[in-house]
Design brief:
about 170 residues; mainly alpha; Ferritin; 7 helices; about 80% helix
Length: about 170
């Protein structure tokens, strides 16, 4: 890929995930909490993206900082999946288990990249996803209607804040 094509591709990728409407991620930026079923889908999308993008990073990046972030993301989001599953069951909310189109599209775009291009796209996508996660976990922990899901949001909020801070550092180092 030529340098110009790479810049255009990365610019388009960033615009797609940082500036364009992101269905479930955009809804999460509102101050109001999502309805229970939407919150579960959003939280699962965050976890799916964290695990899958982390696995991609471990396979495609040579950058130790990116790899450390990815290893921690895979471990933390795998634990979060189990916690969400229990909270969802306690709340009586169903989940179809399918990856949403926004998550799938982000992962497809990451899968086409390697090396420094991957690292930059990975960092920018992590910032976008974790920003939405912090906003929604904060809103749901304060205004959500389901006790078990509110506890999950309160549990995940500090972790998402930590990942967001780390993702900003990754993006700034690119």
């Amino acid at each position: 890929m030529t340098p110009i094509a790479r810049r255009i591709f990365l610019g388009t990728l960033f615009a797609t995930f940082a500036l364009a409407p992101l269905s479930c991620f955009q809804r999460a930026l509102a101050m109001d909490a999502l309805p229970d079923a939407h919150f579960v889908g959003f939280a699962q999308a965050v976890n799916d993206f964290g695990i899958s993008s982390g696995k991609f990073a471990l396979a495609r990046s040579a950058n130790d900082i990116v790899r450390d972030y990815a290893a921690r993301a895979v471990a933390e989001h795998a634990t979060a999946v189990q916690s969400l599953s229990k909270s969802r069951a306690d709340a009586g909310v169903s989940y179809d288990g399918k990856m949403g189109p926004v998550t799938a599209n982000a992962l497809t775009q990451l899968s086409a990249l390697q090396g420094p291009e991957f690292d930059a796209a990975f960092a920018n996508l992590q910032v976008a996803v974790q920003t939405a996660a912090v906003h929604q976990f904060s809103a749901y922990s304060q205004n959500g209607t389901s006790g078990p899901l509110r506890r999950y949001a309160k549990l995940m909020l500090p972790t998402s804040k930590m990942f967001l801070e780390y993702a900003h550092r990754l993006a700034a180092s690119r």
